[in-house]
Design goal:
The protein is of the alpha/beta class and 255 residues long. It contains 8 helices and 6 strands. Helix 1 runs parallel beside helix 3 and helix 4 packs parallel to helix 6.
């Protein structure tokens, strides 16, 4: 049986509670990486998700590229959301079990700007791990550790399939499979991912060395999808396809 960790970014959307109920009915474990300003608008619904056993992770306060922020601005974005999540766990009457963080766009703050970060993916692979603002990147990693954030234990991930070989060297959480449903309807989407059919077909791909290993049983995957209003209908189709493939959804724990 294929084992996966389901992670859902940018929550909560206006359909968040319905998605929580859908996942709960289907006995699916998931971690919601939530944006602080969004939690403030739906704090009761996020507390409800906590009461149903879902883990709430920190995804910054307003979803910026951290390479566009100063070190102090980055720390403030992390801290504000950390405090809001703490308040929400208290509202739910449940002890926060683990602190996990994911950078928006996976931008750890090490580049000169968000635009510079996005452009690096068109450069040779040898240049992608060169950070012109390594001081900011390392300062943010240290700050996460100070606040008690940890990299969870991701059991069963086969390192030979990782495109980012350094992914587990950091405190923040990455992914091994990007569902790319956020490209739905966008003219500039790569690989035809503007179309629902292509997004769903990605689940059936078998290209483990290219970030598409959902059909390979020799590795556990960390799946990334999003809680967006405009992809809500597609969200359910994606999850139903995971269910049809009989994935086993794992819960995050301390390493």
């Amino acid at each position: 049986m294929k084992k996966v960790y389901l992670t859902i970014d940018d929550a909560p959307s206006k359909d968040f509670k319905d998605k929580v109920d859908f996942l709960y009915r289907n006995k699916i474990c998931a971690t919601f990486f939530c944006v602080g300003e969004n939690i403030k608008m739906q704090q009761e619904n996020v507390a409800y998700a906590i009461s149903k056993g879902f883990l709430i992770g920190n995804h910054s306060y307003s979803h910026p590229h951290f390479s566009d922020l100063s070190i102090d601005e980055g720390k403030e974005s992390i801290l504000l959301t950390d405090q809001i999540i703490d308040e929400t766990y208290k509202m739910a009457g449940i002890e926060r079990p683990i602190k996990v963080f994911r950078f928006p766009y996976f931008d750890r703050g090490g580049d000169e700007s968000g635009k510079d970060y996005e452009s690096k993916w068109t450069r040779p692979e040898s240049e992608r791990n060169i950070y012109k603002r390594d001081d900011r990147r390392m300062a943010l990693q240290s700050f996460l550790k100070e606040l008690g954030y940890v990299l969870p234990l991701f059991e069963g991930v086969n390192l030979k399939h990782l495109s980012d070989k350094k992914m587990f060297d950091y405190v923040d959480v990455g992914c091994t499979f990007d569902q790319m449903e956020y490209f739905l309807g966008l003219d500039n989407a790569p690989y035809g991912m503007d179309k629902e059919e292509a997004i769903l077909a990605r689940i059936d791909d078998k290209a483990p060395y290219e970030g598409r290993a959902l059909n390979c049983l020799d590795t556990t995957d960390i799946i990334l999808i999003h809680d967006h209003d405009y992809t809500s209908e597609l969200f359910y189709k994606i999850i139903n396809k995971y269910i049809d493939k009989k994935f086993e959804f794992l819960r995050l724990f301390h390493s």
